[in-house]
Amino acid sequence: MRYLILSDIHANLTALDTVMAALPRDTWDDLLVLGDLVGYGPDPGAVVDRIRELNPSAVVRGNHDRAAVGLISVEDFNPAAARAAQWTADQLSADQRDWLAALPQGPLAVSPTVLLCHGTPDDEDTYVFDELDAQAALSTVSRRVIFYGHTHQAAVYESTGGDSGITDLLPCPAPAHWSHVLAESRRYLINPGSVGQPRDKDARAGCGLYEAVTGELTLLRVDYDIADTQDRMRKAGLPASLINRLAMGC
Ligand code: ZN
Q1: What is residue 75's predicted lDDT score, i.e. its pLDDT?
Q2: 146 C-alpha to center of ligand 1: Å?
Q3: What is the distance in A from the centroid of ligand 1 to the CA of 72?
Q4: DSSP character for 121?
Q5: How far is the CA of 62 from the centre of ligand 1 (A)?
Q6: Which of these, 13, 14, 3, 26, lies nearest to 223 by C-alpha position?
């Protein structure tokens, strides 16, 4: 079973289509999506439609998905994010809105081993930024392999369960193609990176592949036409800070 894992697409259709072109349908079996399909980017409706066409086996909602359909207010968002969220809400059709509104809150189990969440297993809005956060997140559940998003930063936290604690295995800067076989005796908290708005100083689109039988995890970074997305953001009148950060990857 080969899972393709996408997170934080953020209405960036160019990034999504480039990732999907790099990973044709015969390179994966099941698609898992970790939330924030919309928000920030210029293509909210098109990204919702594209993901639905891909028939994912599991999708959890993100905070921007909730904001776009009125499940949370944008009061806690910064002004640029709030403006983008309002713009996003205005672009969605009733059908797209209903589909987003019905997305489940994580955590979502996809197998006896694999769990999905947007923030952490016990709180969809909590961020995992470091080993301490990862340890706390892993302590709330028993599944061995947990995929999360929300930070827009790729990471592969490995827990030995012993004194040596927890380590982020992903090199920094991460290569375009990084693979590692997950150990049966260890637990993992994995962020595949953001497809549509990376914030780990690498502007390329991020995604993950997990082969559940062999345990091989691959994190990929894919070059896409950032200027193409920025053009549509400009035409939509989205905030300049959001347009500029795409090229900086932060
Ligand atoms: Zn996000």
Answers
A1: 84
A2: 17
A3: 15
A4: T
A5: 7
A6: 14
